[in-house]
Amino acid sequence: MRVLFAGTPAVALPSLEALRADGHEIVAVLTRPDAPVGRKRVLTPSPVAVRAQDLGLPVIKAGRIDAAAVAAIAEAAPDVAAIVAYGALIPEDALSLPPHGWINLHFSLLPAWRGAAPVQHALINGDEVTGATTFLLEKGLDTGPAYGTMTETVRATDTSAALLERLSHSGAVLLAQTLAALDAGQAAGVPQQGDVSLAPKLTLEDGHVCWDHPALAISRRVRGVTTEPGAWTTLGGQRFKLGPVALRPDVSGLAPGRVRLDGRAVLVGTGSHAVQLADVQPAGKKLMNASDWARGLANKEDVVFE
Fold it and tell me: Quick one: how many helices (H) and strands (E) in the chain?
């Protein structure tokens, strides 16, 4: 089929490659415009834009689908549009262009975690199983009929980055299978069934660790926001970034936020038992092992995260 591929981050790349490998003609790639990256804020094309340019594919860069973008999509004349983490809403005048519609690969078991950050919310909320769904995009938020699903077990050490990486590859297979079924006239959308939950985009504040919460909830939150938007606490009024933490149910009696050294282990009290820090990034410094950071503390007995 003639496919318009819409995507922006690196997790969309396995799907683009899978559709090419299946012999579909990628008539155009829709992605978000170049964005500032790094401390110097250098304008940088999206990973999908870079790959599309390497492949010599026509690229449509649009932060929102305006009249010019709609015209470019119409000129490409796709049979179907495949969308993976594009990052913007598709208006009705664009939805109606491909005869087979827009097929969205969403990284959750819909209708669970509709929205922009399904993997992050699944981890924060302690889901043991997640997955991906292909569905027909319509006006509502991730509400269209589903074509297929796949499941993925959440591992105890998963961060959102690691889990999303696995889902990007298994989900690419699901998307390719869905388009193959559409091409063969064998695909049938099924209305979504089950409890609806929402997964709005996370903000920086979502990464703020509250040490009064139980250790398990803290661990889930830290893993859920790693690597974006990132977990953090404050020390001396400055932001202090945190990597994933380990549960230490054998250590209790440590006040929430208070740091204690146990050999090379850096422990922090929570609303239940302690957690052990792994990697940390103090304000103005590079990421480092927590034990290396702790060795440089002047007053090791009087450190409390806020």
Answer: 8, 17
